[in-house]
Amino acid sequence: MNQLSSEDKMTTQDTKTDEADALSRRNFLGWLGKGVACVGALAGAGTAIGSTELVSSKRGFQQNDEQFAEAVNNPPKVPGYNWNDHDWAMGVDTDRCIGCLRCMEACKMENSVQMDANHHRTWVERYVYLEGSNTAIVDSQTDPKDIENAGSETKFRFDNRYKNVKVDKAFFVPKLCNQCEHPSCVQVCPTGATFKVKDGPVLIDTTYCIGCQYCVQACPYGARSFNEQRGTAEKCNWCYHRITKGLNPACVEVCPTGTRIFGDRRDPESPISLFIRNNHVQVLKPEMGNAPNVFYKGTDKEVV
Amino acid sequence: MEHVFSHVTPYVGYVYPNETDMAWSQLIVIYPYITGLVAGAFVVSSLHHVFNIQRFAPISRFSLLTALCFMIFAPMPLLFHLGQPTRAFNAVITPHWTSAMAAFGYVAGFYLCLLLLEVWFAFRADIVAMSKSRTGIMGKVYNMLTLGSDDVSPRALAIDHKVARILSMIGIPSACGLHGYVGFVFGSLKTREWWSSDLMPVIFLLSAVGSGVGLVIVLYVIVSKFRKAPIADDTMRGLLYVMFTGVAIVMVIEGLEMLEMVYKAREGIETVRALIAGPIWVGMYLQWGLSLFALVVTSTLLLFDVHGKRLVTWLFASGLAMMLGVLAMRWNVVIGGQELSKTMKGLLTFYPEMFGRESLFTVLIISICPYVVLWLMSKLLPPWNQESASESGVFDNHKFA
Predict the structure, then answer these.
(1) How confident is the model at residue B7 (pLDDT cuts 50, 70, 90)?
(2) Is A8 inside a domain boundary?
(3) N or C: which end of chain A has fewer CB within 10 A?
(4) In this complex, is the C-beta atom of A286 within 8 Å of any C-beta atom belonging to chain B?
(5) CA angle centred on A292, ends A239 and A275, rounded to 5°
(6) B367 and B307, same structural domain?
(7) CA B270, CA B344: separation in Å to the nearest integer?
(8) End-to-end distance of chain A based on CA atoms, in angstroms?
(9) Torsion of CA B77, B83, B84, B89, to 10 degrees
(10) Interchain pair A216, B344: CB under 8 A
């Protein structure tokens, strides 16, 4: 994939002001969300840059190869963390999502995900029922129209294509790896390079992955992608490097509306335990038998 | 903006963002195709070796060599496809046994060894004879190929034949296993509606036999023309029987699979219909059209008891049709399965690259290689009994069976 120049890359702050649209309630909330998100995203970017001398690097927020090699060959040790003591899970309250896509941005920055619209560890889907329709129209940031509207693959936002039509119902659904109890990606990996750890997430040993992409085929949720530069598979790991240090995943950290909830199910008072206890939650594609660990509140029949 | 659409598969409807970078390309189309040709060619050779059907005797060693040459190149598309080809042996050294793919190294390795052994036993008498008659570097090569065993007494040759027969007997279930396994790699994925079928291994296996027999027919006719040797009518009739059986059964099973999918009409069946009418319609027409052509031609040849030149021409045509039809079927399965989005709400349209590591050019090179190696191999080990017997006075080990 083509690399973008650093200027084209993510700008955490959207400098372009919107046209003179009347500020509807939604727009207002969107703005509010962006403001909050910017603070969070900048904080995230600050940590990334501070620790890795990336300021002058051409690749902007992405790790360069040496940094990647260092991270892979000499992973940070986390003394005092015991994976037997945790059982991580995530919740998604779709009623709260405003589609600001700060989660996507934060994820790309935090995890050096490829900077194009076709490789994601997390993304947000927009479901729109037009008036009188029984099915939803779905799109995500990969939609060329959304990219065109944003002007770049790395400026994450939805376009305003439904401005002039009557909409019955619309909502956003954030997606990410479900870190399944019975992950089909782990089942099909021929080398065991991808594996489920005791505290929940499914990880990839990128030094052992042969890049056959069988796991990409096997994931029912489309959560896996292939990193052409590294020749290995990619996926969300709930920011394992963060959660083992007691931090939230980057997407949870920056979410301005509290759509994403994360925590330890062993702790009955953790946000995720409360979320699951107090709400009717669902999982995606239960018929696959994968037993996902991302719990959704307020999804819809059309959600895939 | 231009980078947005490079390497990216265009789509309609809604597909998961990561699906727009299609995982398996045309290289994975020819991988099951090549292993299929191996299985088919091996079946033809076994009909003589195991069941002692004499009409297949003239081509049994040739189809054995064909199977070997194609088997050598079966793993090649996979290696070109891997993101980290240098780590390919990780799957063999530390196999993850719940993965179907982990077995590939073992299944393919076992089968390759089996083929090598069988070829050696089938050709040993010739090798010994040539090690004695040839001089210079080729003499040394043949000497090495004898592996120090130059006993060509009738008793030794009878043992050769017996061993080759046993290997061939092991080879039949192995060939079925190898190819059924390839079907399993696809059929066992619950994620993809287009693949996830219990019939997939059977379909792969039967179409493999069809395409492999087609290959043997095509090669036999072409090689005979070049050698200016007569084409045995009896052999062609035998190949016709196998071909007819293969085509007829595979068409029925493939039809049943499609019927089941449409009849069950699970969620997203509209998208499946759109897939057939949309991105893979050319492939579908080729697959079914060419199979139908082969079926009609072989049925007619059987019905009217055709012999001679007309049989050769039409059987050649249906062999070629079957080879191309099965290639189209592999495309429809591998590419079509990925063009149908996991969301069941969208369709992608795959456009192959022309040049590059995973491109049509690579496919072309890999597809040509087995033929070149087969040509060289048939120089080294002439598989045509009469010719080698008359030229260098070698023994035909089948005579002593």
Answers:
(1) low
(2) no
(3) N
(4) no
(5) 75
(6) no
(7) 9
(8) 27
(9) -50
(10) no
Q: Which of A2, A188, A189, A226 to mutate to test the interface with B (most CBs of B within 10 A)?
A: A188
Q: What is the DSSP letter of A94?
A: G
The residue whose two tokens read 């990839």 is: A204
In a domain, B1, yes or no: no
Note whether residue A256 is domain-resident: yes
Tokens of B397: 């080990």
Say whether pLDDT at B398 is over 70.
no
Residue of B nearest to A3 (CA): B3
Q: Is B155 helix (H, G, I), strand (E, B) or coil?
A: helix
Question: Within the 274-313 window of chain B, which residues sit less than 8 Å (CB to CB) from chain A?
Answer: none
Using CA atoms, how far residue A26 sits from A92, A149, A243, B378, in Å, is: 20, 18, 32, 75
Q: Are residues B314 and B255 in the same domain?
A: yes
Distance, in Å, from the CA atom of B324 to the CA atom of B113, rounded to the nearest integer, reads 29
**Looking at the complex, does the CB of residue A47 fall below 8 Å from at least one CB of chain B?**
no
- Angle at CA of residue A198, ends A192 and A199, nearest 5°: 125
Report the percent of chain B where pLDDT is more than 70.
94
A124 and A97 in contact (C-beta within 8 Å)? Answer: yes
ipTM over 0.85: yes
Task: Please name the residues in contact with B63: beta carbons below 8 A apart, sequence gap of 6 or more.
Answer: B41, B42, B44, B45, B216
| B16 part of a folded domain | no
Q: Could you report the per-residue pLDDT of B307-322, keeping only the tens digit for each? A: 999 999 999 999 999 9
Q: What percent of chain A lies above the pLDDT cut of 70? A: 79
Higher model confidence: residue B391 or residue A184?
A: A184
**Within-domain flag for A12:** no
- Looking at residue B97, its pLDDT comes to 92
3-state DSSP percent of chain B in helix, strand and coil, to 5: 75, 0, 25
pLDDT tens across B65-76, in order? 999 999 999 999
Q: Which residues contact B171 (CB under 8 A, 6 or more apart)?
A: B42, B46, B111, B114, B115, B118
Give the number of A-B residue pairs with CB atoms closer than 8 Å: 151
Ramachandran category for residue A39: left, alpha or beta (phi over 0 → left; psi -120 to 50 → alpha):
alpha
Return residues 312-371 of B near A (CB < 8 Å).
338, 342-345
Cα gap B118→B161, rounded to integer Å: 10
Q: Is residue B7 part of a domain?
A: no
CA distance A64 to A70: 10
Q: Which residues pair with A226 in a beta bridge?
A: A233
Within this chain, do residues B267 and B370 fall inside the same structural domain, yes or no? Answer: no
Considering its fold, how many domains does chain B have in total? 2
pTM of the entire structure? 0.86
Domain count within chain A: 1
Domain that holds residue B148: 26-188+354-401
